[in-house]
Specification:
389 residues; alpha/beta; Archaeosine Trna-guanine Transglycosylase, Chain: A, domain 4; Transcription Regulator spoIIAA; Rossmann fold; 3 domains; seven-stranded mixed β-sheet; six-stranded mixed β-sheet
Length: 389
């Protein structure tokens, strides 16, 4: 049995194209408890989509546009499909990747990342959480086939994070993984995201290809993924800046793991703004700067403040870039669209008295698939630019 509600806003076209969210104010009728199956009808009483009731502004997370049950069989089918895609798109010598990417894999609210013999499961919202037992069972066979013995579930925000062992055991230290042959360490218990920023794998691979001979500054460096990539790419020197000292310790270990003892690597346990201000007083500059901050806009209400923060960051960072130097800038907020983000880079370049030359643009890699009808899912904007006179 499923609950039935009716769409009262003209959203039929985007929903049939695959948009996975229906906000509560677009629906007529009472929604059941989160996790219950809901059939959404069009204004003629015909089936439009089917999904799960959610708590909060999102009323229904859409799982299918067909007249089919949302049940254990559908979860099994979608998880197997997701695993089949990863078998095709995850590059060689890579043991850390996203196995299930929520809405992008038509499993709204479900994220599962693989780190070698470990996997980490996270839920977005209460709807999918109610199906935890079904999801864990469906994941089981796939994880066994991949040689993944341990499954953790992470929940809660910063300061209230909880880790539950669903299969196997909890790691006692950061786990070592491969990314395109590069050795990285991931803290699956206390680290950000599920341990690493897996969506920047393509960014790190590209940076490795153009860092040779350059002095590199990695802002918001976390565990040093960009720094290690630069070192392996032949950088002349690397500076890693992050306010979290434990993350920087993993960056240092990463340099040792990858045999980079000959590459000068300085770590700076401080916030980015005072670091750049001090560098300006010393007139210290770099030939390649990476600026990948945490999300400045966790909600639509924060967008204007985020744009102001990006402008300030780019202005300060580009002021420390050598003429002709390279700037890799990224935004991970779905609320900040690429055009608006790139305008903040232009503002920063104007403050630095330079013109920006665009070399490349990209986003998340193929293990983070996005639905074409769901632009909110295309959250990662990466820009490689060069300062020209």
């Amino acid at each position: 049995m499923t609950a039935t509600v009716t769409l009262r806003k003209r959203l039929e076209r985007v929903l049939r194209q695959g948009h996975p969210w229906i906000f509560r104010d677009a629906l007529a009728g009472e929604l059941p408890e989160p996790g219950a199956v809901v059939t959404v009808l069009d204004d003629r009483g015909g089936l439009l989509v089917r999904g799960l009731a959610e708590a909060g502004p999102i009323g229904v997370r859409v799982f299918t546009t067909r007249d089919e049950p949302v049940d254990a069989g559908l979860f099994v089918e979608r998880i197997r499909s997701a695993a089949g895609l990863r078998a095709r798109v995850v590059p060689p010598e890579t043991t850390a990747y996203r196995l299930v990417h929520g809405e992008g894999d038509r499993l709204p609210g479900v994220v599962c990342d693989v780190y070698g013999e470990h996997a980490v499961l996270q839920f977005d919202g209460q709807a999918a959480q109610k199906w935890q037992d079904v999801i864990v069972e469906a994941l089981g066979t796939v994880l066994d086939d991949l040689g993944v013995a341990h499954l953790l579930q992470r929940s809660g925000g910063r300061g209230e994070r909880r880790v539950e062992v669903l299969r196997g055991r909890r790691p006692t230290s950061a786990v070592e993984v491969l990314e395109c042959g590069m050795r990285l360490r991931a803290d699956l218990v206390q680290g950000q995201k599920t341990g690493l920023f897996l969506d920047h794998r393509e960014s790190r691979r590209r940076l490795r290809g153009f860092a040779r001979g350059l002095g590199v500054l990695n802002l918001y460096g976390y565990t040093g993924g960009f720094s290690i990539a630069a070192g392996l790419g032949g950088a002349a020197s690397v500076d890693t800046v992050d306010s979290a000292a434990p993350a920087l310790e993993l960056a240092v270990q990463g340099f040792a793991d990858n045999g980079l003892s000959a590459v000068p690597h300085r770590i700076h346990a401080t916030k980015v703004q005072p670091f750049l201000e001090a560098a300006a007083r010393r007139d210290e500059r770099w030939e390649l700067i990476v600026a990948d901050p945490p999300s400045f806009a966790p909600s639509e209400k924060k967008v204007q403040g985020a744009l102001d923060a990006y402008r300030a960051l780019h202005g300060a960072a580009l002021g420390r870039l050598e003429p002709g130097g390279l700037y890799l800038a990224a935004s991970c907020s779905s609320h900040v669209r690429r055009e608006a983000f790139e305008k903040t880079v232009i503002s920063g370049a104007r403050k630095a008295g330079r013109v920006v030359q665009v070399l490349e643009r990209w986003g998340a890699p193929a293990d983070h698939p996005r639905l074409l009808a769901f632009p909110e899912g295309d959250y990662l904007c990466v820009l490689l630019a060069r300062l020209v006179d």
